[in-house]
Write a structure and sequence with these properties.
Structural class: mainly alpha
Mean pLDDT: 80
Largest sheet: none
Number of strands: 0
Distance between the termini: 47 Å
Number of domains: 1
Radius of gyration: 18 Å
Strand content: under 5%
């Protein structure tokens, strides 16, 4: 059984995935409103770009104080 179910999350998603899901849903809703409730095939690259921008913002807000995965925690502690 996944850990999410053990801590009472009914949909089985971690809090981060819930935030990402909600971010994607909000952006898709906004894009549909801008485009008259219809996304044309030719508009998919722009819609995908806008969704990606919103996901990036959500991730930055989620972990603003964390270092990048490639940055060592000891990089600034040299003599």
């Amino acid at each position: 059984m996944p850990d999410a179910y053990l801590v009472g999350d009914p949909d089985g998603l971690s809090p981060l995935l819930v935030e990402l899901r909600d971010t994607v849903a909000r952006e898709l809703h906004a894009q549909l409103a801008l485009r008259g409730e219809r996304i044309e095939l030719a508009d998919l690259p722009e819609v995908s770009y806008q969704v990606t921008i919103q996901v990036e913002r959500a991730l930055r807000a989620w972990r603003p104080a964390r270092q990048s995965p490639t940055q060592s925690r000891f990089d600034g502690d040299r003599d």
